[in-house]
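Quick illustration, no need to memorize.
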Amino acid sequence: MSRKSLNIPIKSFQRIALCLISLAIALWIGSCSSPPSQVINLNFGSAGISRNAIQELEDIYQQEYPYIVINSIFAGSAVIQKAIERGEPFDGVLFGEIRALNELQAKGLILPKSRKEFLSTEIVLIARADSSLQLANFQELADNRIKKVAIGNENLAIGRYTKTLLNRMGINQVVASKAILAKGDVREVLNAVEQGEAEVGITFLSEAKSSAKVKVLATASKDFYDPLIISVAAIKSSKHSQEIQAYLNFLSSDRAIAVFEKFGLVPLHS
C-alpha cells in the first residue's frame, strides 16, 4: 500500500500551525480562571469557642487562596452581634449559640441561605494542670472549699449556658457569690484559671483542649443546658458575598471538620 504525502507549501503550513496554536491558547485561557490580582479582605467575627481551630484553618485557607485575607475577630457572640447591628463591616460570623444568629436574621442582617448549624461541643469544669483539687461533678462547686470560680457573664455564650446549667442544678446563687466574671471573651475564663485567679472555671471543651496548663475535672450533663449549637452565616451587607460563602463552605468541609475535632468541636449530627 503506497503512502501519499500532502504537499502543503511551507508558508501555508506555518499559517495553519499558528492558527492552531492561537486556538489552543484561547481555549486554555477560557478554561482557566486566574486568581484576581486584587487582595480581598474578609472580616470574620468568631465566638471564642472556635478560636484555635479557626486560626489553624485560616492559615490553611490563605495558603491555598493567597489573594483572600481572613481577618478574624474573636469576641462574645453578643459583642459581635451588637457590632453588626451598628453597621460594622463584617462579612461573615461564627456563633457559639443560635440565639444571636436568630436575632440577626430577624433583623434582615444575614443571608438566610448561607446559614449553617454544623458543630457542637461540651461544657466542662477546669482547674490548673498542677492542681490537687478533685471534684466529681458541678454540684460540688457549692462546697465551702471552693472559693473562686471563673465563669462568663451574659454577654458571652458560655455565660448564658453556665447560668442555665447552674440554675437547673439549683446552685446558681452560691456560685455567683464566688464568681470571677469573664466579660468580653470566653478566653478570660481559661486565663483566670491558668493564672491562679480562680481555682476552677466553667468553659467549653474546645477551650480546655487549647491549653496544656489546665485539666478537665468534670463534664456537664447535657440535661442541664440547652442544645449547644455552633453556626455560621454570611452578612447581608458584605461586598464579597461569593468569597465569604466559599470560606463558609470550606469551614463545613470534611477537611475542616477534622481540624475542629482536634479541639473538641464535633459535627452536630455525629
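The CA atoms of residues 69 and 126 lie 34 Å apart.
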